[in-house]
């Protein structure tokens, strides 16, 4: 343990109880602090916004046909956000060494890779129905994504790597840090997760606030609901596997599969 850890007054994040109480719902070992939550929200937005700046610059400096291929900007933004997430985790390890970002490979037999793929497929189907049920009922082709080989491949690539950015930022950095700064656990039946999982799941939904400015209200509202639910599921995968690998897989599979299915709908109904 480093000297910084020895001097720090903050204990490690509380662990699950070996003998849970009789109640189906319980919050325990909690100490609510407002300033870390506000700080985490500011850092979250800062990382996401700053990651988009070089991506936008590179995209605009590219060949003229890049202007019609926004997936290039999206993929670049994800890459820069992923790098910033790793920098944030490195800083957290230096200044808050008690925090566990789960930035490591899973132990043998604990990867939960298959479970993560299954989660991702279920998430994709849920998002597809929530986002596109009007088109499904009216048998109208969605127009969100192109179906030509180059651009469809680009969008699928961008969606497939989303987890490499958002999971280190949201689950590794934010959940890991707030688990120490805002300690506590929430038990709902057999589901026992850190309080920070729920705080960051709410942030994860709010991080998609721009959806309200570009999408129909029903789609934007649905995204808030399932983003919160997925945020909890990702933390469960991280906690069970003790690694970010499983949530990265689930996140990538869900976004890739939903967009892929939308493209199939577009091609079939056009």
Query: By helix and strand content, what is the structural category?
Result: mainly alpha
Q: Which sheet architecture does the biggest sheet show?
A: 3 strands, antiparallel
Helix content: 55-70%
In angstroms, what separates the terminal alpha carbons?
61 Å
Unreliable residue stretches: 1-7
* Cα-based radius of gyration, to the nearest Å: 20 Å
**N-to-C SSE string, H for helix and E for strand:** HEHHHHHEEHHHH
The strands making up the biggest β-sheet line up spatially as 1-2-3
How would you sum up the global shape? globular
Strand content is: under 5%
How would you describe this protein?
By secondary structure, the protein is mostly helical. The protein has one domain (about 25-270). The protein is about 70% helix and about 5% strand. It has helices at about 5, 35-60, 70-95, 115-140, 150-160, 160-180, 195-205, 210-215, 215-240, 245-270, and strands spanning about 25-30, 185-190, 190-195. Strands 1-2-3 form a three-stranded antiparallel β-sheet. Strand 2 and strand 3 (about 190-195) form a beta hairpin. The radius of gyration is 20 Å and the shape is globular. Residues about 1-5 have low confidence and may be disordered.
